[in-house]
Amino acid sequence: KFCETSLQTCKRPGNILKRTLCENVDSGYIVTGAAAAVLGENLARDIQDSKGATLKEIWGEHHTEKFAETNLRLGSRGFISLLDAVAGPSAAGTKPPKIETVEQLEKLAEKGGLKFQDLIVSSKESYQSDVEKMLTGRSHLQLSDKGKEVLQAQIERAIEATNTPKNLQRLDDMTQPSARKVGNTRVDVADTPVEREALVLSAISQAEKFIYLPGFVVTRAVAAAIAERREQLSSEGKKLDVRVVADAGLYPHGGTPNSYGVKLLEDRGIQPRWAKLERSGIHDRKIHAKQLITDKGEITGSTNFSTQGLRENWETSAYVHFNENDPESAAAKAKSIEQFTELWNQSFELSTIDYADYLTQDDGEIGKEWFIEETRDSAIRHSLRLIGNYERETGKLHQDILNENAEVQARKAELQAEGYSYGDATLKAVSEVLGEQEYREMLRNLDTNQTLEQLQSKVNNYVLGVDTETASFNPEDLQMPAEILFA
């Protein structure tokens, strides 16, 4: 669906790639005109298709049965939200209660007529320590059959609430945007799986000068398409600048969805980076952007560049064509490049091949390539654990500054009054009051950042064969770095 329309980037001043309310790295456009009308029509269609659906219609019979058989685990946030919902309604805008002890959690469960110990799989001997560990964010606890019943009941209750006659009537009241032409920017809208996949492949195949991708998920398929475009242009004597920043999140079991795509890019001569995202407090941040920027245009929307995102999920994406002759379009392109470049410059680069080479240096030369390949996933997990430690320390740093600096407190309050979220306001206030140079220097001097830089230097020196004392191998390097929690 090709539309000429008017656009502007989402205006969240001071935010890298327009962070969401939880400061995630994100992107988006305000679209008006013909493309907005198409988006509105698609939304209205989807609402009518979904209106009145029951839990089994949404999940399917098989998934409902599987729910009872699956090993389900929740963390502290999940348990607190569940128990808060069971305890009864709260006023709009009310935050979940602050729970720090086992006793507080048990009292919250009692408000809903529940005994917390009945909701989890845990022995009497380990119950206290298991729950304490979960509350500090170091583990997730398995739901018992009773816990699953409580969770499913809340889901059913939520579905029933959306299907009240009053709510269903509201869903019919949608004012559609005008399709009147208001600009000169072409926007391609895609919402079916075939359209979304074609949109991504088309954007990659049209790139002539650069491809920039900040990704929550970077799969092998998308990585391969980017690498092939780069190789195609190289065979024609042209250079394609490829920069990929992958989200540094780890699964609870220690893996990451980005290992396959990152390793493929490295194997094809492209060195990605891992995002290092400063936190405003205890909660984490993610690369939430579904964004791909080229010299010809930019993809944005809700579609992750994963197999599920492109082929299975219910998503919408748009491809904004850049037009150098249109000042509005040229400004949007420049802004996107500027914001991505800032993210790129603050991200962490370390080749998994080089790191694995360093970790296997005592294994001998015979079969060296095999040892390196087998160790690359461990190298990724080690790097991401250290990045996680850095991000947690930045959260403590921002909270300490906020608690101790009255000027930062005042500026944060002003920003929140302007509409900034708590996290956005905190990060921006600290940076503004301290000054960008002093702020960045403070971040660079954090112990966890020094650990990352020392690792980077050690591995690079080993690969280059210089400063062998600094690059000397310690058997402890093979162990997973400890997770550091900051009170």
Q: Main sheet? A: 9 strands, mixed
Q: Return the structural class.
A: alpha+beta
Order the strands across the largest sheet as they lie in space. 2-1-5-11-10-9-6-7-8
- Principal-axis shape equals globular
Could you tell me the mean pLDDT?
89
The count of helical stretches stands at 19
> Uncertain segments of ≥5 residues (pLDDT<50)?
1-22
Described by its quaternary structure, the protein is single chain
Task: Give, in order, the helices and strands.
Answer: EEHHHEHHHEHHEHEHEHEEEHEHHHHHHH
The CA-CA distance between the termini, in Å, is 52 Å
Fraction of helical residues: 40-55%
- CATH superfamily label of the domain at 24-32 and 182-349: Endonuclease Chain A
Strand content: 5-15%
Strands, count: 11
Which fold name corresponds to the CATH topology of the domain at 24-32 and 182-349?
Answer: Endonuclease, Chain A
Q: Please state the CA-atom Rg, rounded to the nearest Å.
A: 25 Å
What is the CATH architecture term of the domain at 24-32 and 182-349? 2-Layer Sandwich
- Could you name the CATH class of the domain at 24-32 and 182-349? Alpha Beta
